[in-house]
Amino acid sequence: MRTSVNEEAPRAPLKRMHWEFALPKFPTSTEWLTLAALAGVYFAAAKLGLGFAIVHPSASAIWPPAGIALAAFLVLGLEMWPAIFLGALLANLTTYGSLATSLCVGVGNTLEGLLGAMLVNRYAHGPKFFIRPSDIVMFTGLAVGLSTTVSPTVGLTSLALGGFAPWKDYGNIWLTWWLGDAAGDLIVAPVLVLWSTAPRPRWHRRRLLEAATLVIGLSLVALIVFDGLVPLPGDGRLPVQFLCAPFLFWAAFRLGRRAVATCVLVLAFIAIVGTLRGLGPFARGPANVSLLLLHGFLAVQAVTMLAAAAVVWQYREAQERLRRQAVKDELTGLANYRCMMSSLEAEIRRAQRAGAGRGFSTALLDMDRLKQINDHYGHLVGNRALCRVAECLRASCRVTDTAARFGGDEFAIILPETSETGARQLVERINARLMADEESPRLSVSAGVAVYPRDGATAEKLLTSADRELYRNKAAARAATAAAAPVGELV
Fold this sequence. Notes:
The protein is mainly α. The protein folds into 3 domains: about 30-200, Arp2/3 complex 21 kDa subunit ARPC3; about 215-325, no CATH class; about 335-485, Alpha-Beta Plaits, CATH 3.30.70.270. The protein has helices spanning about 30-50, 65-75, 80-95, 100-125, 135-145, 150-160, 170-195, 205-225, 245-255, 255-275, 285-325, 335-355, 370-375, 380-395, 420-435, 460-485, and strands at about 360-365, 400-405, 410-415, 445-450. The radius of gyration is 34 Å and the shape is elongated. The two termini are about 60 Å apart.
């Protein structure tokens, strides 16, 4: 496209023409300690897992390091890869193979964790994959199913090329390696991620007792089913493994996702130990085959129960949102009209039970000049003004008081065991807070006070009495403002 003589082609700002180069940040002492600790944990877990290797010294059906690596990348970040690589390299160097094959296995283990974390971050909301059932499914398919193919493929191929694994057993070794990694991701990673991320659970004594009862009950049943603690009828063909399912449902419906992940880990530990001893419903034939069958059972239980816990959490969140909508004003966050009327009637019943010695006050407040504020500044500023009044009410009221939005620009406060004098002093404090607020425009409220039972024995009569006084005071204030300020000016 050509430009005319008098036209000047647009020029890019000079500040966008330069390149910025930044040197990589050198790890701090804390980060070095974190890397060293993670490498040590991974190394110890890898040596433990390789101790159960059956079909090949480098392939184990029990591989918790895969879950440790995935959880570390999700919680601490992808920059933790040197620790995972170092731990994997040392574990393989001290077990089987050459330096070259150990390097390849270490690279495969590291790439597997990195790929799993990147896929979960991209498609399953990262460390929050346990919140929605759809994210749990994505986590299972991408991290547990897909990314875990990297390590057995890279590692086993390098071992076979180096002469440390027979090609004829490639399929069997690969399957064992993959199932061990998948089980680690599905059983170990959720526990570590859930207990490492906020918000932390705040359990009271009864909830802690329930959790302890759950874990003890699950452990006893798991020991009976998988470790022969109590002889069971039949010849091992009965599906007794499902006796553990009620405890997992209990965790899902009562205690949440952390409890489910923890119970699955406890169940997996007991079941694996029993199966390796040749006990339990999955001890059929070679130990490796038994472990593979057990992993299938544990995978189904973990995915099902984590998804059930997510559904329960979503249901409770929806309930809580509906409850808040039923009792809270959406704009100000104060109690709404329905909640205010319920609190007022409840206070009347308490006063009636206590007798003539107990009374209370009700104050109705009306924001001054809201219409003029809306006309002059706009409705967004008007809404903000309502919120500022609500903030003053929250800051001025006691915990036992009920501050509510009565409707429009009116608010109500129910003040248990408060005299008329105390109610009027509260209104003065609210106006003082509003006057001290430097945000524009300046705000104030007019108020009317009613005292139970002097001004009425029912909610309707109390509100009517307070409303009448409110409008008398508002009319007087409007007249005084009109006399003191020019017409149309907001003060």
